[in-house]
Design brief:
The chain is α/β, with parallel strands linked by helices. The chain contains 25 helices and 24 strands. Helix 17 runs parallel beside helix 19 (about 515-525).
Length: about 725
């Protein structure tokens, strides 16, 4: 049964998420769980599914799991939605278990990128998978989106395939792939999907579903925000800003358009006789990037041409330039369409989705989630669910802009916050629905703990802003830093009957928190259970400037405030700082200084990170290109030091664990190679002790039970 579809809104308008007329199948009502089998479909009275979501995660009906959010969102629009979770991928048969979907397959790699899920930063295979029953590894393929999409195409070749989730979102254009050490094509090309939804995709997936239900072909859906598609050519009537080069001369004459119609008096007889075609009546106008600000351009018919896949694959500097352009075009209020040629095809990336309003966010989180895994899993433990089952997501997005993080590329910089009422109601649901609830809410947070309801003070300024971060290099004067809404929320959450404690487990942006001591006191007094996680990431400005992180002095200020309020509350509490080794821009000398800083502050970190180049992140562009995309990229622009060899990455990581005697031989040799043997010794200002030598003529006594010394292999230790 079809329905009426109204045209997409202009760039200055947005259709409310819950304003669509419901699809006729709403008469079936709400499913207790979205079905994973034919038997469940039969029990619901369904003869078919309208939409089938294929996911690499186990199905947990909880708003922290993407497949549940999208599935329940589509169900609320009247569609019958089925789930195929973690199917075997050696054939197409498991993809037929629910039959052929009436509208489309939705394919996602799950809450984590499948490659990051399987491999460590040192490319070792992980032994577990938190999103799988019993934490069992090996239940998803590498590059899940590509593999699942291909199997869906084999199962029902003529069914539209819609891909989304973080794995697809971060691969919407050509991207450096750490696992194969090369630049890969857009996942749209490799998966043979029909359309890609990037970012938080509620608006886009609802529009795709309703337009397909109205009888429209998916090939006609070229204008939906937050989507990427493949085209054979750019349509007529558009203006191209040519950003395929980084070496434009300083003075550029306007480049004539080769497709422009000439004055009939100046045309040759041959061209006068040629009939006009639609493309020549309304040609694509091309403007070099350096001249684009001198032209009056219609944003709705202007796109930026990025360097092609072949160019960025072979020219790392052009890759860094393309990354810089992509991130500068991330504000949904002023971003332009991006186009990148892949061989003979054009990957067309529409402008980012308009963020959800508070009312729309409430609607998404108020959907009828069961807040637990599907019954098919029985009593199996799903570690990711156990970790978040008593946590509440209060907002989306992050304006921090940390270059190593993928949150901004996926969720955007504009904070989308829920209402107090919606959040408090979810806490009550947890209290009443979660089996074995003990009275503790494990987190009230999101990508960052303290960005709730923090937005630009001016809509006009926000709509024109192209900053990569609202807090780096300094906190923007137009950013609202008042934490009073968060403080009030904490207080109300604590007063809910049956709630004994509300913990804050999300990472804290401490440079922001310094602007509101009342918030810090509230946090420290009531919501820290002895330890608080924060992430200065490094101590050295050379590295911090490549991360877009604040100076270590901001950490020192916060530490003083934290300890003062802890003492006032009569509590002995500690900060747990996180640090990253081998980040682009980090020299061994920087890691030595960080190690000395850790020793001086009596920190002996156990869990430390090595930089992990995730697709599309700015730091990944630095890692691949050796260029700094935070500044204008040229062939002569700033070079960034990169650590790529596994052994060198391990040395930098060892500086973070200077206290572990297993690392001392490695660090001693590294310090010798650096010419810093002065750092070897037992002094308070030295990093690692000197190697103990046996007195002449007297062997060193072995520890009881110690194994006999082994003869060194030739070349060992290289």
């Amino acid at each position: 049964m079809s329905q009426t579809y109204s045209p997409a809104p202009t760039s200055e308008q947005v259709r409310p998420l819950f304003s669509w007329p419901k699809y006729w199948a709403e008469c079936y009502g709400t499913a207790p769980y979205l079905p994973m089998s034919r038997a469940e479909m039969d029990a619901l009275g369904w003869d078919s599914c309208d939409i089938i979501i294929v996911t690499a995660d186990a199905y947990v009906d909880h708003p922290s799991f993407g497949m549940a959010v999208i599935g329940r969102m589509l169900e609320s629009q009247g569609f019958r939605v089925g789930i195929i979770a973690q199917p075997a991928w050696d054939s197409a048969e498991p993809f037929k278990v629910l039959g052929k979907p009436n509208l489309f397959f939705g394919v996602t790699g799950g809450n984590m990128d499948s490659l990051i899920n399987r491999y460590t930063a040192d490319l070792r295979i992980r032994t577990d998978d938190a999103y799988t029953p019993h934490g069992e590894a090996g239940k998803r393929p590498d590059r899940s989106v590509i593999v699942y999409s291909q199997r869906c195409r084999e199962a029902y070749y003529d069914t539209p395939i819609v891909i989304g989730g973080i794995e697809a979102s971060l691969r919407r254009i050509a991207q450096y792939d750490y696992w194969s050490d090369k630049v890969r094509k857009s996942v749209l090309i490799d998966s043979n999907a029909d359309i890609l939804l990037y970012g938080n995709a509620e608006r886009a997936v609802v529009e795709v579903a309703h337009r397909l239900a109205a009888g429209e072909s998916i090939d006609a859906m070229t204008d939906i925000r937050g989507t990427a598609i493949v085209r054979d050519a750019v349509p007529a009537g558009w203006t191209e800003i040519d950003s395929t080069r980084i070496d434009w001369p300083s003075k550029i004459d306007a480049i004539p358009n080769p497709y422009e119609m000439k004055d009939p008096e100046t045309q040759s007889c041959a061209t006068q006789d040629e009939p006009a075609t639609p493309d020549t009546v309304s040609p694509v106008r091309i403007i070099p990037m350096p001249l684009h600000r001198k032209n009056e351009l219609d944003k709705d018919t202007t796109y930026i041409r990025l360097p092609s896949f072949n160019k960025v694959r072979n020219d790392p500097a052009l890759y860094a330039h393309a990354s810089r352009v992509l991130h500068q075009e991330s504000n949904p209020h002023n971003a332009r369409v991006l186009v990148q040629k892949h061989d003979t095809k054009e990957v067309w990336v529409n402008t980012p989705p308009i963020p959800l309003s508070t009312e729309e966010m409430d609607g998404v989180f108020d959907l009828p989630y069961q807040r637990r895994p599907h019954p098919a899993y029985g009593d199996a433990k799903i570690p990711a669910y156990d970790m978040i089952k008593t946590s509440v997501n209060i907002m989306r997005g992050c304006f921090g802009g940390c270059t190593f993080c993928s949150i901004t590329e996926h969720e955007g910089r504009i904070i989308q916050s829920r209402s107090e009422e919606s959040i408090l109601k979810e806490i009550e649901h947890i209290r009443d629905q979660v089996p074995g609830f003990t009275g503790t809410i494990s987190d009230l947070g999101g990508p960052t703990a303290n960005m709730y309801r923090l937005n630009c003070k001016s809509d006009a300024i926000q709509k024109n802003c192209r900053r990569l971060s609202c807090v780096y290099p300094t906190i923007c004067q137009h950013l609202n830093t008042d934490h009073s809404h968060t403080t009030a929320l904490y207080r109300k959450a604590r007063r809910i009957p049956g709630i004994k404690r509300v913990a804050i487990a999300s990472g804290l942006r401490y440079d922001l928190a310094l602007r509101d001591p009342e918030y810090v006191e509230e946090l420290v007094t009531h919501h820290v259970g002895g330890y608080l996680k924060i992430a200065p990431e490094h101590s050295e400005e050379n590295t911090l400037s490549k991360m877009m992180k604040p100076s270590i002095t901001a950490y020192d200020e916060f530490k003083e405030m934290f300890e003062r309020f802890s003492k006032k509350a009569g509590k002995l509490q500690y900060l747990i700082p996180y640090f990253i080794a081998a980040h682009p821009g980090t020299e061994n000398e920087d890691m030595l200084n960080l190690g000395l800083w850790l020793k001086k502050n009596k920190f002996k970190p156990d869990q430390v990170q090595t930089f992990y180049p995730s697709p599309m992140a700015l730091a990944t562009a630095m890692y691949y290109s050796g260029k700094n995309p935070l500044k204008k990229v040229t062939y002569k622009s700033e070079k960034v030091s990169i650590v790529k060899q596994i052994e060198q990455r391990r040395i930098q990581k060892a500086f973070l664990r200077y206290h572990d005697e297993k690392n001392w031989p490695l660090l001693r040799q590294a310090l010798k190679d650096m010419g810093r043997e002065d750092m070897i010794g037992d002094g308070p200002h030295q990093l690692v002790p000197a190697e103990k030598k046996a007195p002449r003529g007297r062997p060193v006594a072995k520890r009881p039970g110690a194994a006999p010394a082994k003869k060194a292999r030739p070349g060992a230790g290289r």
